[in-house]
Amino acid sequence: QRSVQSVKLVLLGEAAVGKSSLVLRFVSNDFQENKEPTIGAAFLTQRCSLGNNKTIKFEIWDTAGQERFASLAPMYYRNAQAALVVYDITKPNSFIKARHWVKELKEQASQGIIIALIGNKVDILEEDESLRKVSLEEGENLAKEEELLFFETSAKTSFNVNDVFLAIGNKIPNN
Ligand code: GTP
Ligand code: MG
Q: Highest taxon of the source (predicted)?
């Protein structure tokens, strides 16, 4: 018989990096060119079946990246079992912010939280390679140093989006 395991997952990252768009892609296989900023946070769920007769029910807290909501984040990551720390590969500041989030999670979140570092918006490079401002190596190196999962993604084309959640699901210990 299939077992269903609930996993609390939080998304963190600078405003407009595409957190809500990644969730929209994962949950509804949809994309919006002009997605409105998240106010406070949004809660969504999605099931994901893994190969081994196991289903993960992701309980997703999609936080708001705008600075005025920064004080809310600890409420959402405190009891999370997994986190996506998202940056925009065309925005160097968003990568600096991602580093800060990883540090804060390591200090304040649950021991053993599974963290995935996500460099989003790779589709933009199809138009102009010079728009890349955070190299693949920078992302890989941070992930290696901090022992994070790492993916470059596009919520727009759906590139690697499901793989992020599958990789997290596969790292969740059986309860
Ligand atoms: P906050 O809720 O303010 O923290 O922002 P967010 O991180 O949730 O970003 P959101 O998903 O709202 O996306 C911001 C803008 O980037 C929107 O106009 C999206 O359409 C666009 N966007 C998101 N993901 C991608 C992507 O992978 N590629 C491209 N080209 N645009 C994207
Ligand atoms: Mg959002």
A: Eukaryota
**Ligand 1 pocket mutation, candidates 26, 32, 35, criterion most atoms within 8 A of CB:** 35
- The residues pairing with 49 across neighbouring beta strands, listed in sequence order, are 55
**Cβ atoms within 10 Å, residue 2:** 9
CA dist., res. 68 & res. 21, Å (int): 20
Question: Does residue 139 carry a pLDDT above 70?
Answer: yes
Question: Nearest CA to 116 among 2, 10, 21, 24?
Answer: 10
Tell whether ipTM is more than 0.95: yes
pTM: 0.98
**Ligand 1 pocket: which of 10, 12, 17, 21 to mutate (most atoms <8 Å of CB)?**
21
